[in-house]
Amino acid sequence: MVKVKVEFLGGLDVIFDKERTHKVTVAADAGSDVTMGDLIDYIVDNMIKNSNDRCVFIENDNIRPGILTLINDTDWELEGEKEYVLEDGDVVSFTSTLHGG
């Protein structure tokens, strides 16, 4: 079990009860590390209240293009994306770069 801080910025907070910051506890299968993939599954399954909003966050089983994903202020692509093993206290930020207007 891992406790992380998750931030939804750039308007993404709208699909998360308009809360920008969440403290999240994520578990994995017994004996397994908790990965970013586990966190993403948790977010989709437990935090997005309206199933119609899932497409705002997820596309083709991955974070939607146009959402900058950072792990402790580092681009998640440099950290291994879904394979990154989360640790207690990690800060994961999702920032939409797509704005309506």
UniProtKB/TrEMBL annotation:
<comment type="similarity">
    <text>Belongs to the URM1 family.</text>
</comment>
<keyword id="KW-1017">Isopeptide bond</keyword>
<dbReference type="GO" id="GO:0005829">
    <property type="term" value="C:cytosol"/>
</dbReference>
<keyword id="KW-0833">Ubl conjugation pathway</keyword>
<dbReference type="GO" id="GO:0034227">
    <property type="term" value="P:tRNA thio-modification"/>
</dbReference>
<feature type="cross-link" description="Glycyl lysine isopeptide (Gly-Lys) (interchain with K-? in acceptor proteins)">
    <location>
        <position position="101"/>
    </location>
</feature>
<dbReference type="InterPro" id="IPR015221">
    <property type="entry name" value="Urm1"/>
</dbReference>
<dbReference type="GO" id="GO:0032447">
    <property type="term" value="P:protein urmylation"/>
</dbReference>
<dbReference type="Pfam" id="PF09138">
    <property type="entry name" value="Urm1"/>
</dbReference>
<dbReference type="InterPro" id="IPR016155">
    <property type="entry name" value="Mopterin_synth/thiamin_S_b"/>
</dbReference>
<dbReference type="GO" id="GO:0002098">
    <property type="term" value="P:tRNA wobble uridine modification"/>
</dbReference>
<keyword id="KW-0963">Cytoplasm</keyword>
<comment type="function">
    <text>Acts as a sulfur carrier required for 2-thiolation of mcm(5)S(2)U at tRNA wobble positions of cytosolic tRNA(Lys), tRNA(Glu) and tRNA(Gln). Serves as sulfur donor in tRNA 2-thiolation reaction by being thiocarboxylated (-COSH) at its C-terminus by the MOCS3 homolog UBA4. The sulfur is then transferred to tRNA to form 2-thiolation of mcm(5)S(2)U. Prior mcm(5) tRNA modification by the elongator complex is required for 2-thiolation. Also acts as a ubiquitin-like protein (UBL) that is covalently conjugated via an isopeptide bond to lysine residues of target proteins such as AHP1.</text>
</comment>
<protein>
    <recommendedName>
        <fullName>Ubiquitin-related modifier 1</fullName>
    </recommendedName>
</protein>
<comment type="pathway">
    <text>tRNA modification; 5-methoxycarbonylmethyl-2-thiouridine-tRNA biosynthesis.</text>
</comment>
<feature type="modified residue" description="1-thioglycine">
    <location>
        <position position="101"/>
    </location>
</feature>
<dbReference type="InterPro" id="IPR012675">
    <property type="entry name" value="Beta-grasp_dom_sf"/>
</dbReference>
<keyword id="KW-0819">tRNA processing</keyword>
